[in-house]
Every structure is written in C-alpha cells, then in structure tokens.
Amino acid sequence: MEKHTVYSLHTSLCYTEVMKYELEQVVAAAIKDLYDVEVVVELTRPEEQFGDFATNVALQLAKRLGKNPREIGEAVAEKLRGNEQFTELSVAGPGFLNMRLHDITLLGALEAESAKTLKGKTVLLEYSDPNPFKPLHAGHLYTTLVGDTIARLVEHAGAKTIRLNFGGDVGLHAGKSMWAIVRALGGEYPEKLADIAEAERPAWLGARYVEGNNAYEEDDTAKQAIVTANKRAYALHDTNDHESAFAQIYWTCRQWSYDYFATLYTQLQVVPFDRFIPESEVTPLGLETVRAQLEKGVFVQSDGPVVFRGEDQGLHTRVFINSEGLPTYETKDVGLSLTKWRDYHFDESIIITANEQMQYMQVVLAAIHAFAPEPADRTRHLTHGVVKLQGGVKMSSRKGNIVTALEILEAARVAGEASGTDPNEETILAAVKYAFAKNRIGGDIVYDPLESIALEGNSGPYLQYAHARARSILAKSPAESHALPKDVQLEADERSLVRTLSQYVEAVDRATAELMPHHICTYLYELAQAFNRFYENNRVIGDEREQIRLGLVSQYAATLKQGLELLGIHAPERM
C-alpha cells in the first residue's frame, strides 16, 4: 500500500495559495499567447525591493525557444502590463520577472485563513511519553511542548486530533526502581511510603531509579534480584494483584509518577491528553502478535530470544522477546500500534521521540509492516536532538546527570530575576516554549536561559511584549473597532507592513505541512521587526491616516496573538 503522510492528506488551498496559483496561470497564459508553448510557472517571494512575487520562467524557456532570457522576460512583462492585479512588472538580472501587486490585491490577502487541509481526517499525535518510576527530564519537556504545538497545528488544519501519551509502567526500568525502592524501605513495607513528603516524591523516585540502574550494571547479585523484581512487576498485571505488599508499593509509586506528570502538564498549560496508554495495557496484544507471527516466519528464534532480522531491508536485528520470555520495548510498540489502529483506524499516526529512537523505530515499523501494513504505512516518526543547558552535559537518567523539566523552568525564572525582568509564570512558559519551538526539529537544542527570557531579541517574552505594546496603542483610541479599509492606497511603510502581514497564512500552512513549528517563530519575529520599523517612522494616534494605521496595528496584534496561540503561548494585553 502506498505510504500515507501529512503531505498526501492535504487537499485544499488557502487564499494566498489560490492567489499565487491564479497569478501563475496568468503568466502561463501570457507565455502561451506569445510563444504558443505550455509551461508550468512557479512564483517565489523575492526581497521586498524587487516586488511581491518573482519567477525565473524566462530562464527556463530560453534554451527551449532559442531566445535570450531577458528578451523573453521583457516580452512577458509587456504582455502583462495593463492587468489590474499588477502595478509594476520589471525584469532583473539575466531574466527574472518581478511583479508588484495592486494594493487592493495585497490587502485582500489579509483576509486569508489557513487551509483546512486535514478536514475529515483522524490524526493521532503521540508525544511526551514519560515512564513512571523515572525522572521527567528536559527531553520529555521538549517533546511535550513541541508535540503540543504540532498537535495544535494539525487541529488548526481541521483534523480530528487525538493526543496520546505512552508510558512504560512495566519493563526493566520498573524492575530496577522497585528493587531500589524496597531496599530503601528496608523491605516490603508499603506503610513506610507515607513518610515521604509529597513534594519530595518525584526526586525520591528518580534517585531510586539511578540506584537500581547502577546496581544492575555493577553488582551481579543485585542484577539477578532486579530481574526477579521485573518479572514480579509484570505478574502484578497478569494476576491483577493489588493486595500484596510488593503490589501496594508498585501501584502507589506508579500513581506518584502519574500525579507528578499531571501536575506538570497543568503547569505547562498544554492541551490535555485524550488518553494515557501504559505499556502494561498493550503488552498482551504485542506478545500474542509476535508469537503468532513467529510461527509464520516474520520473527525467528535466535538462541532463545525472538528477533526480527532487518538486514534484508537494510536495517538491523532487534530482540522482541528476551531470553527470560519477557517482551521488550519492541513488542510493546507492536501492541501499541495495533491498539491505535483498532481503536481509531487513523489516517495518520505521528510519533515524536528523540533521535536515538530513529533506527529502533525503523525496525519496529518494518516488522509491523510484514503483518499489518496499513498502520505501519500511516505512521510517521519525528525525532529531535538532545536538550542541554548552555554549557551543560548530555543527559542520562540512568547515570543521574540529567537536567529535569522543572530545572529548565527554574533556570528561566532565575535568569529573569537576575536580568531584572521579574518574570511571571506566563513569561517563563513563553521563554521556554519559544526557545524550543524556534529550533528546527531534528538537531540538538542548547537552551540558554538568559537569551530565552530576554525582552529583546528572538524570544517568546519579546513577542509577548510586542503584542502588549500594540494593544496599548489601540487602547489610546476611543473607537470600539479598528477595521482596516480594503480599498485604500497604501503609503510605502504601510504597504511594507501589509506585505509581511499577508505572509502569515503561508507560514502557518508551511509549518503544518512540514510539521515544523519553527517556521511560525521565524515569521512572528520578522513581523515584529517589520512593525517596529513602521512604528518608528509613522505616527499613528493623531495622524491624518489614523484610521488606516490603527487598522494595521489591530491586524498586527491579531496576527501576533494567533501565531503565539498556535505555539501555546499566552498573548498578554499588558506587561
């Protein structure tokens, strides 16, 4: 079956894309009239001094027609002169055709709305995915915040958007933690958990995981005890045991983790998840499927473990059932994929993880494709790099040298206080969310708290301030509304701002098509700079063009607010 992607789901165009398409057809028609040839014209956005759109079609046609490209460009420009959509056509360099739109056409683009390219589609977004019993580190914070933004974009495009959170409540990490927890309690004494203050529980659990992991790697006796604890944790789900002392410790500490995650998500102001899926829920289906497909030859037995040999597809071999007879992460992901397909029959399933999971997921999807091609083909895996603090060390929850999610937020707070900005919770969230979103997904992220919290430069708080500043200008006018007239002749600086405003929908649609929120960040920062240039040279209140300019300020504030909301950032009325 043909692979489904977000691109293949797009079926409609926004106003600016329609406008661009129509202009391309106008140019193509002119060339047809002049030279009796069919050609596909592609318009691009040149630098402002050259116009609103440009095309190199004359250079493409030169060899085909045996003519000088500049001569072709001049002929096409002359043919188009008189078309009411253009006020200026010129040829630059060897034959680039530059076009300047009529102000009315440009102003019309401000009414554009993003295309509902995913209307009628069901799209699953799986992100955050912290494991109970382990600390939630900066990488989880990154995928939580960026995943939230991508989900907002997909939803904005019209999809039925289902936010999923998959966490490992069973597995070797749980065995390591349970071994260390029991050891710290002096035995299987669940009543002693009451001595641990609620505020200390996340850090306490994180420390136990580190102890368990170190013991597993350094002490053979402890390693065997951890393997046993791992099996006992699995057995709790098989037997539905909630009464034994071991079970009481397990279920209580698992709930501590879930409570902590819920508190953090509320603090981060992300859209609530539609469903939390623990590994224990999907493990039975994964095991059943792998064992069934073992008999059919998809998987093979290899000296005990059950593996999928990916070498035939340019991949590598991975274990799906280990020598102890326990399922690995791979088998749980099989169960998860089939559960998603059974419950949602999705058009697209997007999974967001760290880069280190890239090859792992390639093998898992290749294995699933062998017996369930539709869910495999409709799954898209996005990966991101490592999150580090400025001057920091790569994080490892196993070794304990991690930067936690809360430490990232606290770093922004401390940096703000040190710089004198006295940040509130909204400002701190804006700082961190924007700092993460402005980086193209895929590379490592070096988080600089001082840069992120600054009220100047490419930061979330700067854009919040820009919005508040625009609202303060509008507040000086007694008018209840500030509608921008659509039939005015714009002055140069006004037109320059309108030109930038008109590109908002393009930026959003590109971010949605590519699942890359940084396009919105880049646009919003450029828009704020464009407004600053306008406002420095043009009086608004008290000017004879006050109505027009207030309309521009209102459009600017509304655009900033819409863009910030897609990033999950509050746009304040005042700062």
Structure report:
This protein has 575 residues and is of the alpha/beta class. Among the domains are: 15-101, Gyrase A, domain 2, CATH 3.30.1360.70; 172-196 and 208-261, no CATH class; 405-566, Isoleucyl-tRNA Synthetase, Domain 1 (Orthogonal Bundle). The chain is built from 22 helices and 13 strands. The protein has helices at 6-9, 15-35, 57-65, 69-80, 103-108, 138-156, 172-184, 201-218, 220-239, 245-268, 279-295, 329-344, 358-369, 373-377, 405-419, 425-437, 449-453, 460-475, 492-501, 504-514, 518-537, 546-566; strands at 53-55, 86-92, 96-101, 122-126, 160-167, 275-278, 300-301, 306-308, 318-321, 348-354, 379-384, 387-389, 445-447. Strands 6-5-4-10-11 form a 5-stranded parallel sheet, with helices on both faces. Strand 4, helix 6 and strand 5 (160-167) form a beta-alpha-beta unit. The longest helix is centred in the middle third of the chain and has 24 residues, at 245-268.
CATH class call of the domain at 405-566: Mainly Alpha
Structural class comes to alpha/beta
Radius of gyration: 29 Å
Taking pLDDT < 50 over at least 5 consecutive residues as the criterion, the unreliable ranges are: 1-12, 392-400
Helix content: 40-55%
Give the N-to-C terminal Cα separation.
53 Å
**Number of separate helices:** 22
Q: Within the CATH hierarchy, at the fold level, what is the topology of the domain at 405-566?
A: Isoleucyl-tRNA Synthetase, Domain 1
How large a portion of the residues is in β-strands, by DSSP E? 5-15%
Please tell me the CATH architecture of the domain at 405-566 by its name: Orthogonal Bundle
What spatial form do the alpha-carbon principal axes imply? globular
How is the largest sheet built, in terms of strand order? 6-5-4-10-11
CATH homologous superfamily designation of the domain at 405-566: Isoleucyl-tRNA Synthetase, Domain 1
| Strands, total number | 13
What's the average pLDDT?
A: 92
Q: Characterize the main sheet.
A: 5 strands, parallel
